[in-house]
Structure formats: C-alpha cells, structure tokens
Amino acid sequence: MTKEKRKNMKPEDRRNQLLDCAYDLFFTKGFEDTTMADILASSGVSKGGFYHHFESKDELVFGIFVRMTAQIAAAMQTIVDDTSKSAVARLQAIYDLQAQAISAMGPEAVIYTHGALTQVANLGLQALLHRTIAQASMPFLTQLIEAGKTSGEFSVEDAKTTATFITFINNSYDGPLSAALEARGSDQEGAAKRALFAAYEIQFDTINLCLGLSKGTIKHNWSEFVDALLAVPRTKR
Amino acid sequence: MTKEKRKNMKPEDRRNQLLDCAYDLFFTKGFEDTTMADILASSGVSKGGFYHHFESKDELVFGIFVRMTAQIAAAMQTIVDDTSKSAVARLQAIYDLQAQAISAMGPEAVIYTHGALTQVANLGLQALLHRTIAQASMPFLTQLIEAGKTSGEFSVEDAKTTATFITFINNSYDGPLSAALEARGSDQEGAAKRALFAAYEIQFDTINLCLGLSKGTIKHNWSEFVDALLAVPRTKR
DNA sequence: TACCTTTACAGACCGACGGTCGGTTTACTA
DNA sequence: TAGTAAACCGACCGTCGGTCTGTAAAGGTA
Questions:
Q1: From CA A83, how far away is CA A80, in angstroms rounded?
Q2: Chain A residues with CB within 8 Å of chain B CB
Q3: Closest CA to A77 of A69, A67, A65
Q4: pLDDT digit string (tens) for chain B, length 237 residues
Q5: Prediction pTM value
Q6: I need a surface site. Which of A5, A41, A219, B20 has the fewest CB within 10 A?
C-alpha cells in the first residue's frame, strides 16, 4: 500500500470498484466477517470516500445483487425470446448457459466460491443469493413454460407453479455437490461422485416429469465439468 | 423490572432458561438484531451470569439447535422403529407428525415465526435451521426408505440419494407458503391459496414419484391447517 | 490567470455492540 | 460457624459500522 496521489474518479467507476472489492470479500470471508476496514483497505478508499457513494454496508450487498440480476435477466431474455427454437430447446439452452457461465469461472474459482458460500457464516448471503436469482429468473422460466404449454410440448397444469418448483430445485439443491467436493482425495471420492450424479439424475428426472416430458429429454451436460471440479486437488488452508 | 432477590439456579435450568429467551428473540427479531442486552433483560440475568454458562452469543444458536435436533430425532426414531406398520404408513406418519407439531404451535405463532424467519435479516438463521433439521432427519428417512425398498413397497435406485432429495424438498420449499401468507386479506388471497395447494400437489407428486409410488399414495393432510393459517387476519405492526 | 462552485475524498470521532475480569453472594458441607 | 466452590454481578475494554467537519480536486466563467 504505497502512498499514492489522490485520484478523483467518476462516481460510477468508484462505485463499481467498491462493489468489486466487496464482492470478493463477502464471498470469501462472508458478510459479517468482512469489516468496513477490510473493504477500505482493499480498495484504497477512505471512510468518507466510501460513505459518499454508499449509504451503508448493507447497500453493497444490494448493489452486488442488482448487477447480478441484470446479467441473469439479460441472458435469459435472449434465450427465451428466440422463438425460432422449440420450448424444449430453449429450456435446454438455459441449462447449457448455466454450465457455460460456471465453466467460464474456472474450476478453482467455482470450488472456492462454493466452499465459501457453504460456510455457516455465509449461509445468509447464500440464501439471499438464491432468492435473488430465483426472483430474476422466475419470470422468464414462467414465460417459457407457458410457451411450451400452448405449443403442446409441455404437459403442465399451471406454468407458474411449475416454474416456481423448478426454479427452487435448480437454485438450492447443492448439498450433494458440497458433499462430493468435501470428499475429494479421500477414499470416499468414488462413492461421493456416484452420489452426485445420482442426485443430478433424480433432479432432472423430476424436472422432466414436472413438465410432462419423457425421461432424459432435458439433461444436464455437466459431466465433464463436474469431472474437472472433482479433479482439482484439495487446497490446504 | 422490579428488583428481585437474587436466586441461584441449577446450571441446567439456567441454561435452558437462557436458551428459551434466546429462542424467542432470535426467531422474532433475528440473530444480529438481538443484542446481548435484550437477552439479559428478558432473562433477568447479568452479563457475568450469562457468560458463566455460555462462551458466546453464537453458542446460544448452537444450543438451541442441539435441543431441537434431539426432539426431532426422538420423534422420528419412534415412528421408524415401529416395524409393525408398512413403510408407506410410517412415512405418512412422519408427515402427519409434522402437521401435528406445527398445529400444536397454533396458527398465530406459526405465522409469526415463519414471517420472522423469512425476513432478510434472518435468512442465515433459517438456512442453518434447514440444514440442522435435514441432518437430524436424514438418517431416519434413509433407514425408512431402505426398509421400504427391501419390502418392495418403494421402487428406488438408491435410498440415500432419494432421502437426500426428499429431505431437501420437505425442508426448504416454503416459498409458496410465504406468498400465500403475504396475500392474506388482499384480493389476491384466493389465487395465492390455490397456488399454495398446487405447490403442495407438485411437491407430493414428486415425492411419490421418487419412491415409485402411484400418485396420491403419500399425501399431506394440511388442508384444514392451512385454512386456519390463512384465516388469521394480518396483524399490523 | 484568478475566482467560485461543486463534489469526491480524508480521517478524527461517536455510540453500540460482544465479550472480559475482578469481585461478591449464595448454597452446601463439615 | 467456618470454609469452599460455583453462580452471579456490573464496570470496563476493544472493535465495529456509521457520522461529521474539513480539504483537495475538477470544472466552469471572466
């Protein structure tokens, strides 16, 4: 931390810089365990500078999630709006996109983030993240299921009910992944990996069934990616 | 707060009293928003007295969940161990027990607790509660599904995988209930109620399907209880 | 250039919080 | 009744998120 000449930045740039710093810290140390001093030190901004742009520490979380939902909404929008594809194909595209987005982070980063979010101190942050993603993606999934219902591809009583249930499962069912990551390198590794794929199977069987699709219609293409995840050696810390 | 004569209590009693006070406060105000001063005031114990029995504020949460898991485990144990009943009947008994336990609280208390847990400030507590209940109930559910598999009642690939998935759904799928409670008294009430029952339907359809049971075998008997919940007028606060 | 206004920033300061510590009271035993 | 161990008290401490007063940079105007 060498003493640098003070540099006034454009408000939007400074805000984004602070959001970036907070993002890193919150998702590794957790919200409560990240102090304002941490954020100020990593960003090189003074307290006064920070509170000129944000009203509170809480607003950082809010700001992070606003950025995130905007990205998710935009991505899903383009997929759902491509009506040249069938509803099934578009739904599959959503899952593929999910896989791509996570893949793009790289295995190590995914593991690190996942591990951090699963810590007890971060459960609140994780729950809020799930809720945020659910709220952002629900409308588009509902719209897509509605489209598939009218086209006769999906056999569904109520699109919104189904969308709610599927969104819930997609977002929150990460227990088996945690267990598998935990088991890396131990003699339980093989069993945990099989359990993980069995979990994905039951998850996607359920999804297909809820939409009235035959088994295996919508599928996760996560195999090679999960393999990459489990191949990462456990970091000592 | 009249000044009373000091009364030394047995450690176990004092601990339980403090856990009771903390339970009430945490599940209404939330963990972070409950100060030590709140707990001390409501229990009439001094700071020194408290820290004689507990190491930290965090330990209160831990203590609360230990008591809770013990109760859950005991209740499920007796049901699962009653091998005179079929596996289906025992699984149904678990859901009935769940309904009874919640009913016993009374509609107002359920609504209040649910509302408190759903607030953003309490999401961490809620997630930890879900995780705790899941860990406590999983072994018994696995055992029961295993029994039903060998008896031929359930058609299941792997008992543990299925138990994990069902436990996950049972514990965490409370979004529709929140929405319905939120809609009480408004013109959306009817729609929200229908949506809630549709959500329960898709939930139990999934459960039955995961166990290879025909639709409607395992069912929730929550109708009249949910009616009672939704009949409670919204309290202004 | 000189001057003024606006705004991005600095850091001393504040009250509230969780937790500590030395001392006091109670309950029990001999 | 004296001794002791454990239950209890409350003043005190360090750290936290947040405030407030002041200052330096940036940009307009002459």
A1: 7
A2: 32, 120, 123-128, 131, 134, 157-158, 160-162, 164-165, 168-169, 172-173, 175-176, 195, 198-199, 202-203, 206, 209-210
A3: A69
A4: 334 456 789 999 999 999 999 999 998 898 999 999 999 999 999 999 999 999 999 999 999 999 999 999 999 999 999 999 999 999 999 999 998 988 898 899 899 889 888 988 899 999 999 999 999 999 999 999 999 999 999 999 999 999 999 999 999 999 999 999 999 989 999 999 999 999 999 999 999 999 999 999 999 999 988 999 999 998 744
A5: 0.92
A6: A5
Residues of A in contact with B206 (CB under 8 A): 165, 206, 209-210
B224: closest CA among B93, B89, B105, B99? B99
Q: How far is Cα B137 from Cα B125, in angstroms, rounded to an integer?
A: 18
Protein-covered nucleotides of chain D (CB closer than 7 Å) are 6-12, 15-22, 24-26
Burial of B125 per CB tally in 10 Å (0-12, 13-18, 19+) = buried
Contacts by residues A63-67 (CB-CB < 8 Å, ≥ 24 positions apart): A63/A15, A63/A19, A63/A22, A64/A19, A64/A22, A64/A23, A64/A26, A65/A128, A65/A129, A65/A132, A67/A19
Q: How far is CA A172 from CA A98, A129, A168, B141, B214, in A?
A: 14, 10, 6, 20, 27
Question: Rounded to the nearest 5 degrees, what angle is found at the Cα of B136, between the Cα atoms of B131 and B140?
Answer: 130
Tell which of B61, B120, B154, B210 to mutate to test the A interface (max A CBs under 10 Å): B120
Give pLDDT, residue A235.
75
Task: Give chain A's radius of gyration (CA, Å).
Answer: 20
Alpha carbons A82 and A97: distance in angstroms, whole number = 14
